[in-house]
Amino acid sequence: MTQNIYNFMLSKERVQAFLKEIEVEDLVHNFQVMGDQVYIDMTAHSPAMHEKKKLEVAMKQAFASEFGGNVEVKLKIASPEPTEVQKNQIKGKEIPGIQNIIAVASGKGGVGKSTVTANLAVTLAQMGFKVGVLDADIYGPSIPTMLDTEGGKPTSVTVNGKELMKPVENYGVKMLSIGYFSGANQAVVWRGPMASKALNQMIRDADWGELDFLLIDLPPGTGDIHLSIIQEVPVTGAVIVSTPQHVALADVRKGIGMFTMDSINIPVLGLIENMAYFTPAELPENKYYIFGQQGAQYLAEDMGIPVLGEIPLVQSIRESGDIGRPAALQENSVLAHIFKKVAQNMIESLVERNTNLPKTEAVKITTMAGCSPKK
Ligand SMILES: Nc1ncnc2c1ncn2[C@@H]1O[C@H](COP(=O)(O)OP(=O)(O)OP(=O)(O)O)[C@@H](O)[C@H]1O
Asked: TM spans, by residue (predicted)?
């Protein structure tokens, strides 16, 4: 790249040459230079939202390093029409009545994925949405504890002549978990196909009714169970939960990478940073960034996904999880407000996703390389 040593006015020819130099000429269909502002209309390589964000960040960085901070790039990035290949990646297995299926994932265990799922679920329900939670964490199903339905037993109902499981319900949230079924202890040793069969039954052979959101609390990490679920279930988008520590962030890249692989291509709606800072109960205004600050922001920017919110490390979140009444239910509290903002940001990201991309159906995985251990 040439050095930023130009003192003359920005010209259309210079911008044209630069677009060629950074090899995006083919993607740009129109551009105009007006003083220090460059207006560019272009099309992303793929319709995935993270691709558009990545392109935007890369273009802005490239222009800043070439022309300096005074030049402002105004981008309009369109989605390409889905190609035949992309259309073929999608398998027709829509679940009637369920509008949006959101996978909640984490790169590693213990970052608060289930806590976030439970709080988001009750928040969405309080906002007036119809919400379901599928606890797919077969290694340690904690949704029954966190939503106070331990010992719950899904009953059987007949719907249109078919016998279905009726989800357990509390706080306006319908839920199913492997924890409700006998033999839950054995689930820990299940391989992908078995887990996905059980989970599939909990999704398809259950009377969820009409749902705006079905949140799936995935097991921690990345592996064959995740791939099996993604293969079978038409996930609309994924939400990634992380803590600020460096190790968690390294793992979270893997987690995001699992969804954004070309062969899977599930949009990542955003990153939720849990335990982002510590706030003592007696000093609610004070924030202590024990594990470092802004790591999630940098990572999200780098990977072209939004940060949906920062959730503090607060004793009452753990306590309320243990007693099965999510902290977000504390009316007019700071925590309720934080979870509401996270839910709103998630919906915003989802609306953008649903506007820009074709309806997701179950993903046909063409290669499992790099994600799943060979059996
Ligand atoms: N923001 C928070 N503040 C305080 N405690 C929290 C917070 N988030 C989670 N915890 C606590 O951390 C512990 C782990 O949380 P949780 O079970 O939600 O993690 P997880 O990522 O779902 O774990 P796994 O993936 O291993 O099942 C729980 O005791 C929970 O109450």
From this structure: none
Q: How buried is 247 (Cβ within 10 angstroms: 0-12 exposed, 13-18 middle, 19+ buried)?
A: exposed
Span from the CA of 313 to the centroid of ligand 1 (angstroms): 10
- Tokens representing 241 are 């939960």
From CA 156, how far away is CA 154, in angstroms rounded?
Answer: 7
141 lines ligand 1 (CB under 6 A): no
Q: Which atom of ligand 1 is nearest to the CA of 117?
A: 18
The mean pLDDT of 268-287, rounded to a whole number, is: 90
Is the CB of residue 172 below 6 angstroms from any atom belonging to ligand 1? no
Average pLDDT over residues 82-95: 48
pLDDT at 79: 79
Sequence ranges of the chain with CATH classification 3.40.50.300: 98-356
To which residue do tokens 């991309």 refer?
Answer: 357
Let me know: does 61 contact 68? Beta carbons within 8 Å: no
| CATH of region 14-78, choose from 3.40.630.30, 3.30.70.1770, 3.90.1150.10, 2.30.180.10 | 3.30.70.1770
Query: Rounded CA gap, 356 and 351, in Å?
Result: 9
CATH 3.90.76.10 is right for the domain spanning 98-356: no
Question: Is 69 marked within a binding site?
Answer: no
Q: What is the structure's pLDDT at 2?
A: 46
324 is in an annotated binding site: no
Centroid of ligand 1 to alpha carbon of 41 (angstroms): 44
Known binding residue 114? Answer is: yes
Statement: residue 258 has pLDDT above 80: yes
Give the model's confidence band at 85: pLDDT under 50 very low, under 70 low, under 90 confident, else very high. very low
- Please choose from 115, 314, 335 the residue to mutate so as to test ligand 1's pocket, defined by most ligand atoms within 8 A of CB: 115
